Amino acid sequence: MTALLELRDLHAGYGQTRVLHGIDLTVDAGGVTALLGANGAGKTTTLRAVCGMVRTTGEVTLAGERIDNRATEDIARRGVAHVPDGRGTFMELTVEENFKLGAYVRKDREVTSDFEQMFGYFPRLRQRWKQQAGTLSGGEQQMLAIARALLLRPRLLLLDEPSFGLAPLIVQDIFGILRQVREAQGVGILIVEQNANLALDFADRAYLLETGRIVVSGPAQEIREDEQIRRSYLGY
Amino acid sequence: MQGLAHQLVAGIATGGIYASVALALVMIYQSTHHLNFAQGEMATFSTYIALTLINVGLPYWIAFVLTILISFAMGVFIERVMLKPMHNASVLANVGVFIGLLLVFRNAMGWIFDYTIKAFPSPFESDHPLLGGLISGHELGSTAVTLGVLGIVYVFFRFTKLGLAMRAAAFNASSSRLVGIRVGWMLALGWGLAAAIGAIAGMMIAPVVFLEPNMMLGILLYAFAGALLGGIDNPGGAVIGGFAVGIIENLGGAYLVGTELKLTLALGIIICVLLVKPSGLFGRVVQSRV
Amino acid sequence: MSTSQNPLAATLAPVATPARDGVMLRILIVLGGFVAIAAVPIAFASSYQLFQLTLAATYAIAILGLNIVTGFNGQISLGHGAFYAVGAYTTAILMTHFDVPYWATLPIAAAICGVIGFGIGFPALRLGGLYLALTTFAVAVAVPQILKYKGVEDWTGGVQGTFLVKPDAPEFTGLDNDQYLYLFVLVIAALLFLMAANLLHSRIGRAMRSIRDNPIAAEAMGMDIARIKTRTFALSAAITGLAGALSAIAVEFVAPDSFSVELSINLFVGMVVGGVGSIVGPIFGGLFVVFVPNLAESIARAAPGVIYGVILILFLYLLPQGFAGFPRRIGALLRQRSQG
């Protein structure tokens, strides 16, 4: 498999505060990489760094092309879709308008058929079509956020804690759909999760982040089965 | 009764002007949370451009369209060059830049076109009043123009992809970047549109109040009042508020305070709205940002 | 004063003595500076130059008032010219209609402006800063119209305005009227600047600044933000009103068109150029507002406005600390140079 996303010696921070101290990380084309770690370890910052939402040094390469220190909108236009923490939906706009914005940069004619495909994944969004996104339930908003991101037809999907604040049943639902998406669309996924079990189950590669440095990396399955790592880092 | 009806109609005609300027203010406010105190001066400047083009010999409507295009470009240019570096600056610094723009425009007009009051032509037949003296040709025509502009702006924002992207950029800049919208250019386009709308308002009011560098100052005040009344973050509300203060102004001027205190009436409306319903009639509830 | 009461200073006793020496030195410098500023023009300046300096001092006071609310408390006012106008008209009306001596009109003018400031600030201050900017801008635009209003013409003199008589210098001073008025305004200005400096280093001053810098923390610490803001606004209006009253005495004339929106904008420009949130800044601001238009007007009638606008924008981009921040800016540059 070829690498879709590669981070090499990536540093990032906000103002004077440095958060990442040299991260190396890979997402394979069509593969799922999980990024684990405690609160404040720098997981969200890593995703933001990929999207050009924070200042970085080091290399970020998307399918062979350097994208570090490009504008966020240009990175999105190269096929990186980010579902940030707080979901990044347009609360004041309707579900329909959120869909249209998701496909904003696309020029092809298959947008409407992709809408149908999203309804296939998330039937509830069809019922909420003319409703303001802000009036949706938490689970529906997360679905809308993922649909919005997929409508970009991304090569790389960044997910920041998709299970956050949702009921277990809905989380199961969403991860089920993410598996379908992965198979159907061949999109590479970099996922940040608090729920390590869930993420390791879903991913094929995993990294463990501690105060801005990677302390463990390897195939997700090995990490899941390594009792010592589980006990000392993942706490279950 | 005839008098009252005439005041109402005249109120709607000037209300259209206030509504346009209020809309221009709110468009910029929504995307940047700043109020463009130079909006009035920019509109007056555009009107001078129109007069210059007409004096050169261009037919009215060609001058009209050209003025709109020039004003649009001017708005885009000002945002890109002067305000872009201020995106992360304090509110005070931004207010300062607007005041600086106001000073430059106002005095540049005095310098280039001098301070004498100038007549500005109306494209609408104005010799004989219509509908039994209820409305003049210019009032009818300018109302039609402002309503047309407001309608076009509504359709643009509601039904076009670019309009949707501009709304998205105003509501949530960081999410907009994530879907690939060039937010900076959306702001500049908003400035361009606001300047173009202001230019139309200026060209429509100039035949009534005559053209001089101070022309839009009182109108800007009423536009502020209208925007506040309708809700400073709600474009539709600002338009309704603009028409409302136009009617209030005309009725108040005729039956209450006389023409001498028209500006004071606008001030009174502003203070009343802030005291009674600071979020305006249709605005989202303003959270005290201390 | 505040250092000696500070418990920290007491525990650091060895440090406190040189600090007090520093204070003494500062007082001497300020006093010496004041005597120089007072004596040199009185000795050498023409009566017109003295008049201009007197005006600059009144503008400096007015800008000080504006700086207290905008610079130190973070509340943007674009309408302080209105308080200047109310102060001026209060003095004019009291002097011409009630024969009140000029000096006795000053506290009355300040008090009236304070009350009006409280009344205007009250609705707007509870909301975001832009609402105050908008409301005060509207006040500034409406003021000339209110002053021209026929219903109050008997008092204000309507469009024509009202003439005042310049006070005579008391004989024991041995000064002429212009020299005396200059000294009088200068003494009041010095007192107000000292008062402002003390206020800003007091507990209330710190509260004002913390509301500007971090309103959420200030609220969490239990400060009554709306109360402090409305009172600051009232104080600021009173100081600017007092400046207006002095200007009426100096100009010997008040008329509506001297108090147009341009006046408010000039005060704002003077504040930014002098230095937002600086005590000495308004002095530069006052000098700027009086002397720069004089220089610029020789180019064209509209030139001062254009130059004002350009200078305002340039300062905001390049020197947001204003003139008052100039030495610090140069110091920082030199230090950078020597380090690297």
Tell me what the CATH architecture of the largest domain in chain A is: 3-Layer(aba) Sandwich
Q: Which series of helices and strands of chain B comes N to C?
A: HHHHHHHHHHH
When the domains of chain A are counted, the total is 2
Compute the number of helices of chain B: 11
Radius of gyration from the alpha-carbon trace of chain A, in angstroms: 17 Å
- CATH fold call of chain B: ABC transporter involved in vitamin B12 uptake, BtuC
- Give the C-level CATH assignment of the largest domain in chain A: Alpha Beta
Oligomer: heterotrimer
How do the helices and strands follow one another from N- to C-terminus of chain A?
Answer: EEEHEEHEHHHHEHEHEEHH
Low-confidence stretches of chain B: 286-290
Mean pLDDT of chain A: 90
Strand order of the largest sheet of chain A: 6-7-8-3-9-10
Pfam family, one (chain B): BPD_transp_2
Subcellular location (chain B): Cell membrane
Protein name (chain B): Branched-chain amino acid ABC transporter permease
Family (chain B): Belongs to the binding-protein-dependent transport system permease family. LivHM subfamily.
Q: What does this protein structure show overall?
A:
The complex is a heterotrimer of chains A (236), B (290) and C (340). Chain A is an alpha/beta fold and 236 residues long. Chain A is 38% helix and 28% strand. Chain A has ten helices and ten strands. Chain A has a six-stranded mixed beta sheet, sandwiched between helices. In chain A, helix 3 (95-102) packs parallel to helix 6 (138-150). Chain A is globular and about 45 Å long. The model of chain A has no long low-confidence stretch (mean pLDDT 90). In chain B, helix 1 packs across helix 9 and helix 1 packs antiparallel against helix 10. Chain B has one domain (2-125, 137-276): ABC transporter involved in vitamin B12 uptake, BtuC. Chain B is 73% helix and 0% strand. Chain B starts with a helix and ends in a 14-residue tail after the last helix. In chain C, 78% of the residues lie in helices and 1% in strands. Chain C contains 16 helices and two strands. Chain C has helices at 2-5, 7-11, 13-44, 47-72, 80-98, 102-125, 129-148, 153-156, 177-201, 203-213, 215-220, 225-251, 261-274, 281-297, 303-318, 326-339; strands at residues 162-163, 253-254. A two-stranded antiparallel ribbon of chain C has the order 1-2. In chain C, helix 4 (47-72) runs parallel beside helix 9 (177-201), helix 6 (102-125) runs antiparallel to helix 12 (225-251) and helix 9 (177-201) crosses helix 10. Classes of the chains: A alpha/beta (236), B mainly alpha (290), C mainly alpha (340). Chain A binds chain B through residues 51, 53, 71-73, 76-77, 81-82, 84, 88-93, 97, 100-102, 104-105, 148, 152, and chain B through 161, 164-165, 167-168, 171-172, 174-183. Chain C: Keywords: Cell membrane, Membrane, Transmembrane, Transmembrane helix. Chain C: It comes from Roseomonas alba. Chain C: InterPro entries: ABC_transp_permease, LivM-like. Chain C: The chain crosses the membrane at residues 23-44, 50-69, 81-98, 104-122, 129-147, 180-200, 233-255, 267-292, 299-319.
